[in-house]
Amino acid sequence: MQNVTVTSSNRFDLNDILDADEKLLWSGVPGYGRKFIQAVGDERKVHVCLLIASLVMWATLPFIDVDAEFGRFEAYWIYGAMTFAFVAFSFSFATQRHYVLFNLAYFVTDRRVIICRRGRNWRFGVRLYIVSVEHSATFPYSIVDSRPYPSLEVGILLSEQQVQPFGLGLTHPGHPVLFGRTYYPILLDYVPEATKLLSMIRTCLNDTADSTRTSSE
After folding, report:
1. CA-to-CA dists, residue 100 to 34, 151, 158, 160, 169, angstroms
2. pLDDT per residue over 111-145, tens digit each?
3. What is the sign of the dihedral through the CA atoms of 181, 118, 40 and 167?
4. Contact 47/127 with Cβ under 8 angstroms?
5. Which of 42, 53, 124, 161 is surrounded by the fewest CB atoms within 10 Å?
6. Where are the alpha helices (DSSP H) in the chain?
């Protein structure tokens, strides 16, 4: 059974998070998506669809009769309002993804994976949300195909509400539409070293198993 814990703090000190004899092996952040213009995953599809919809809408303008009840003057206002709504929708998607990924930090130790997520709580106070996932020999670790870098699934949460700074948690618009419907995957998003990290975790598990076997003999 995988042990996943979620805590929060008003300050970040890695020494307070790690155990005394715990060894830090790797630290990093998402390799892509932290900048506002770096759209990822399904977010790109949304931006492209809204752009195509806007172009098609404005392309119908020459076919509208100037003297019709719904003439070009009305079309300008309606099309302009729709275009503004599309831009605002795209902007909100990009803002949410940027906000989530920019405030993530990842750590891998010889015992667990730690995800730190900075965000504001309902009182608008800045808090650090810490998701700790112990290495498990029974969990099916997997590399998730994502562009431009793969993601590594390291655990699951039964409810995203456990990590909800300001209503955003760990998810963002770049994740698939059905992401987190039945359970919430815990990912190291867009890390170029995903394969290396998976090998690192498995090595830690093998070392732990060997130590346990040796001590029992």
Report:
1. 8, 15, 20, 14, 8
2. 999 999 887 766 667 788 889 999 999 999 999 99
3. positive
4. no
5. 124
6. 14-17, 41-59, 72-102, 194-216
- Are 131 and 107 a contacting pair, CB within 8 Å? no
**CB-based contacts of 42, cutoff 8 Å, min separation 6:** 173, 174, 175, 176, 177
C-beta of residue 159 within 8 angstroms of C-beta of residue 165: no
Looking at the predicted structure, is the pLDDT value of residue 158 above 90? Answer: no
In this structure, are residues 33 and 190 in contact, taking their beta carbons and an 8 Å threshold? yes
User: Is the pTM value of this prediction over 0.85?
Assistant: no
- Residue 99, classified by CB atoms within 10 Å of its CB into exposed (0-12), middle (13-18) or buried (19+), is middle
Most distant pair of Cα atoms in the chain: their distance: 93
DSSP at 171: -
Amino acid at 180: G
